[in-house]
Amino acid sequence: MGKAYRMVLFDCFNTLFLPDASRVPTILVEGKPTVSTAGLLKALIAPEDAELTPERIHRAHRQAWAWAEGRRGAAHHEVSAQARFRHMLELLGIAALAEDFVERLLAAHIDAVTESYTLPDAHRALLERLASARRLALFSNFDYAPGLRRLLRRTALEGRFDPVVISAEIGYRKPGRAAFERALALAGEPLERILFVGDSLDDDVSGAAAVGLDVAWLNAAAGPRAAGSPWPTFELRALDEIESLLD
Asked: Can you give the pTM of this predicted structure?
């Protein structure tokens, strides 16, 4: 018999929303297909510098991501997607552009990323069943909140989760303690009445364990648990297995 959880707090990507390989944008890098939105970004950047290739934009985007990772530090401060994209443009030699240009780039990039994920029918049905008896909430590492909120509207999930906790809005990322503490404060439920569900050992299981939060690890691929990583409270092969924990 499981605990009397009153809230199920879900990770978003690779937990609720799953990648669809047929929707992933790609370019050729050194002759090899590579997941990247650089082809889309080139069309928007071309008026500023028509000579830039998708491959060069891709490399600058990867460098900007590494730059943001380095700035997050031990506390896992979030670095906004706007700051990350401005840094990418500086690496490309394009500086001092209007903020609305950065927003157009971000919208193209983020929408392509989120549209490469789908909500399986089984997951939607699960949410509908769970919502009849429990509060549902969402907790995501995502550095551009408008993009995630557009995804929730597009998939008719806006209003399904309360709260929706996004790293870009709270200023911290999982697995940081500050991120989990802020998520729990927004949830407004006692710690022992919340079950967190996520797919990442590093971000989800480690972060939840550090604050004493029960966590169900979605290990759909039956991968090994890395040596030294904390044990999840539960391990799932499919998301709908959480119903047996709640019942």
From this structure: 0.94
